[in-house]
Amino acid sequence: MKKHVHQWKRWSRTDEEVAYRCSECKAERTRPTTAREKAAIKRHWRRFDRQNKAMHRVYHDFTRRFLVKDGDGNYSVWKWTGYELMERVDKWAKKHPKDVITCGIDDTHHACSDLVFILHRVKRRLWGTSCVVLTQCDGIPPKEYFMYPGHRAGIQEALAKMATYGPMGL
Ligand SMILES: [Zn+2]
């Protein structure tokens, strides 16, 4: 390592200590966290918790309403399936017009089914979207997936391509 003046950059901060690391040689040094910093950390996490709760509020409501906990304490068992579930979710979605979007698809039995999008909104942006595929007659439990904005952009692009399909001329 070349002789140099350490370039200390803050590396991590906990309630106990603040760590610095030299961006040249990766040497580390720490000092105890000050009372002022501790207060700032507390404020940060309080804000984070509040935002987190708000952001996942509607999805948590969905989970508690339509699923029950399994033996491990995870919400993984659906209370209803098929048409009955679709009807209930539809009613619930109408109560959350800003956070829930639904549209129709067909399942493998060509029976009307639903796609449900539950937005995880923060103050100025959409953090992500929980998606649920509710099929009516194929006997498969609802399937969930998640979209970050990048995923949504990819799907949007795919749909845009579909809209400009080339006819086969058959
Ligand atoms: Zn250094």
Topology overview:
Elements (H helix, E strand, L loop, with lengths): L7 E6 L3 E6 L5 E5 L2 H21 L1 H10 E3 L5 E4 L3 H13 L5 E7 L5 E10 L4 E9 L8 E5 L1 H15 L7
Antiparallel strand pairs: 1-2, 2-3, 4-5, 6-7, 7-8, 8-9
Bound molecules: zinc ion (ZN).
Offer a quick outline of the entry.
With about 170 residues, this protein is of the alpha+beta class.
List keywords for this structure.
170 residues, alpha+beta, 4-stranded antiparallel β-sheet, 3-stranded antiparallel β-sheet, 4 helices, 32% strand, binds zinc ion
Tell me the overall shape.
elongated
Arrangement of strands in the largest sheet: 6-7-8-9
What share of residues is helical? 25-40%
Instruction: Provide the low-confidence segments as ranges.
Output: none
State the order of secondary-structure elements, H for helix, E for strand. EEEHHEEHEEEEH
Q: Domain count, please report it.
A: 2
Q: How big is the Rg?
A: 24 Å
Q: What is the number of helices?
A: 4
Distance between the termini: 70 Å
Percent strand: 25-35%
Report on the biggest sheet.
4 strands, antiparallel
Bound molecules: zinc ion
Assign the structural class, choosing from mainly alpha, mainly beta, alpha/beta, alpha+beta, or little secondary structure.
Answer: alpha+beta
Mean pLDDT: 94
Number of strands: 9
Task: Give an overview of the whole structure.
Helix content is 35%, strand content 32%. The chain has 170 residues and is α+β, with helices and mostly antiparallel strands. It folds into 2 domains: 8-51, no CATH class; 55-163, no CATH class. The longest helix has 21 residues, at 35-55. The protein is elongated. The model has no long low-confidence stretch (mean pLDDT 94). Bound molecules: zinc ion.
